[in-house]
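Deliverable D4.2, example record:
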Amino acid sequence: MSYLTRGLTAAAVATSLLFAIPMVASSASTDAVAADTLLSQGKPATASSVEGTGFEASKAVDGSASSRWASVEGHDPEWIRVDLGATATISRVKLSWEAAYGKSYKIQTSADGSTGWTDVFSTTTGNGATDDLTLSGSGRYVRVYGTARGTAYGYSLFEFEVYGSIGGGGGDTTPPSTPTGLAATGTTSSSVSLAWNASTDNVGVTGYVISRNGTEVATVPGTTYTDTGRTASTSYTYTVKARDAAGNTSGASNTVTATTQAGGGGGPAVPFGSHTIPYAAGMLTPSGSQSALDQKVIDYYTQWKSAFVKQNCGNGWYQIISPDADHPYVAEAQGYGMVITATMAGADPAAKTIFDGLVKYMLAHPSVNNADLLAAEQDTSCKSVNGSDSATDGDMDVAYGLLLADRQWGSAGTYNYKQLAIKHINAIKASEINPNTNLLTFGDWSTSGDSTYNMSRTSDWMIDHFRAFRAATGNSVWDTIRTKHQTVTANLQSGYAPNTGLLPDFVINTNTTPKPAAGQVLEDPNDGQFWWNACRDPWRIGADAVTSGDSASLAAARKLNTWIKSKTGGNANSIATGYKLNGTAIDTSSDAAFFAPFAVTAMTDSGSQAWLDAIWNKMLATPIATNSYYAASIQLQVMITVTHNHWVP
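Output generated by the structure prediction step:
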C-alpha cells in the first residue's frame, strides 16, 4: 500500500495509518481515483502568510505549474487553505512542492474554516517533490497545516489540488446575478480603486472575486476594492464575479480598464500595500492572504477618514476632529492624522492633498513657547486655547509624519517636508527633552523648576520615532535618548511589574530613580497604573520590536504578550479596560484603545498565531466608534502595523 507516492519511512507510514484509508492497488481502485473531480482549482484560497507580491495563496490553486504560493521564511507553523464553496467528500489531495517543502504537516478539513479542524492525514517525514495522498474526509474547507519546514526557508506549493465530489445532491445550484456597474473610482501611481453594484442570490452572496488581466487576485465581501502595488503609467483590466455560499459563481461583470498615474510626479515611493520594507525576521501576520488583510485596513481607514478628517475652518486647512477630547482639535489627533495619511498614500488618491492641508493647519498653530512646535489645543473656531503651548506626543508624530511625507513625495513641492521635519525634531530636543535625564517631558511648558519637569509619560516613548530622528538629523543624541527610554522601560517592568510587564501612565522621579506615579500627578487617580495613556504602550513598544528586531524592544514586548495571553486564557474578549501594574483589572469593559495594541506584541512570539488572530478578528468585529477618535485612531494604526504596512523613514 502507498500513502505518499514518493514513499515514507516505516514510522511515517505508521503515523499515516491513523488518518489515511488504504489504497488497494487494483483496477477498481485506480478507476475510482481517476474519476475523482478536481474541486480546488480557481477557488478562494488564503494563507497564514505570504512571502511577497506574486506568491499569494491563489497561485497554488490556479492550475499553473509555474506559479506558486510561498509563506514567509523561517517560521513555523504556516498554513494554506482553500474554500471549496460547499461541503465536499474528499478522497485525494495532491501537493506539488517547490524546494521549500513541509517535513511535518497535516491535511485538515473544516465545515466553516475557523473551528473544528479535523486531521485526515499527518506525516512527520515529508521529503518534498510531489505528495499524492489518498485519504477520506469531508468539509467545505481543506488546509495544509505545516508544523516543521524541510528547509531553512518557508513553505511553498506550486499546486494544492483537492479531489472528490460535492456531496448530497439537491443542493443550491443557482448562481448569483452578474455584478453590474463596475467602474474605476480612482487611481494613483500605484493603485486602482474599484466599485460595483451588488448582486442578488436565492441564498445569499458571500463574496466577490476580482480578476486583473484575466487572473483572480482577491475575494472581498463588499462592493469596493483597491488594488495596490501596481506599476505607474500602466493599464489594467478588471472584471468581478459574485459567489454564493454553495460555491456557485456568477458570470463576469462588465470589463473596466484603468491606467495608473505617472510615477515620479507626486506618486508615493512606498505605496500602501507594497510591502517593500520588510519587518524583522519571524514577525507574525494575521492569518489570511496579504491582499485581504490590506483591504481590511483600507476599509477601516475609509470609515476613519469619513468620521474624523474635516475641513471645518476654511483656509485650505484639514483637521482631525476629536469629539472625545477636551477640545475639538488636539495635537495628538493632528499627529495621528499626519502619520496615517502619509502611510495610506497609494490606497487613497487624496492622501497628499489631505496631508498638505494638515501641514498648513499645523504651521498656522505654533506653540507660544517654541514656534517650531504645534499648539496642543484649538476650539471650534480652530483658535488655539488653553495656553497655546505644546504636547509632546503630538509633536513626536508630527515630526515622524513629515519624514514619512518626505520619503513618499519628496520635498520639492508646496512644502519642504524634510526641512520642516528637522526643525520640528530639533524643537523637540530643545523644548521637550529634559537634558539632565534624556527623557521626554510633557510639553514645552514643562520647564526646569516646574513640578512636572522630572516626570514623563510612557506612551510618548516612541522608540521607532527616535530611530527616524537619528537618521534624519545625523545627531547621535537620539541614540542616547532612545537607549535611555529603553533602559527605563526595562527597569520599570522588572522593578514594578515583574509578572505583567505593564507600564504606568506617568513616571515620576526621573532625575533619580524613575518610578510609577503614586496617585494623581496630572490627569487621574490611576496615573500610576496601566490606564488611558499607557494603553498605547504595547503598540508603541511592539512597533519598534517588529520593525527593528531590537533585543530590548523585543524583550519588553514579549513580556507584555506572555502576560496578557495568560491573563485572558487566549480570549481577546477578556482584555480589560485598564489594569493595575500587578495585573488586577480596573474596568472589565472592552475598548479598542486597550485590546488592539496587544496585537502588536503578539506578533513578536512565534507561538502566538492563534492569539494574534483572535485579537485581529475582534478588531474586525468591532464597529468603528465615530464618537471616539482616540480608540479608532489607535486601532487603525495597530491594523497598519500588524499587516506589515508600518515602516520607519
